[in-house]
Amino acid sequence: MYVIIAGGGRTGAQLARILVAQNHFVQLIDSRPEVLARLHKELPTEAIFEGRPIDPLVLEKAGAEKADVLAACTTEDEVNLAICFMARSRYKVPRTIARINNPRNAWLFDHKFHVDVAVNQAEIMASIIEEEMSLGDMMTLIKLRRGNYSLVEEKVPADAPALGIAIKDLNLPEHCVIAAIIRHGEVIVPRGITTFEPGDEVLAVADPEGARQLAKMLSPNKVGNGRTGNGV
Predict the structure, then answer these.
(1) 69, 71, 171, 200: which could join 156 in a potential S-S bond, CB 3.0 to 4.6 Å?
(2) What is the CATH number of the domain that holds 187?
(3) 108 and 71 in one domain?
(4) What angle separates helix 208-217 from helix 121-135, to the nearest 10 degrees?
(5) Where does a domain end: 91, 123, 155?
(6) Beta bridge pairs of residue 186
């Protein structure tokens, strides 16, 4: 894959390192001498292209016409928007990604400026915090590329409400599928009559609501809350 990255700051440089390690062809564009000096210590020389990312001639020389993806990672939102607009309208780049620096500008990053994916770091962090708080001990292993689904994992405690109940009788949410159970180091393919045991590691594919409901079924039973009356 041919990837052009506009902006050699920490975000752009980290992205370039990952893509180079995955054997993609990368052209990271920046014009600042101090940034270029750092980049030459972190990346192969052939992955670095000197010039102003917003300059059409620079984009053209960096190979915009044959790029599969362009990621605009500069620290200026207006520059990122302009680069994405040029990439699509002038060079027909199939896929554009733009970094949002100021969350107040997020509404601008859409099809009008030919932005396919807008990366709003504040929004991502808020989403992660909300998800982690709502899922309790459940862990999100990976976000699936298609749809609003994730692969999640949770270890079943000794007093989970779902213990001893066949999977077919659990009334699982519509958008939640038990993919596998890891028990004593062995992988079990779940069937309708399979029941959970304490210590099982449950892997499931679910949307956010399905994951929340499954987390309730696999969380410790809080009935009684461990109290013995009158606070004694």
Answers:
(1) 200
(2) 3.30.70.1450
(3) yes
(4) 30
(5) 123
(6) 183
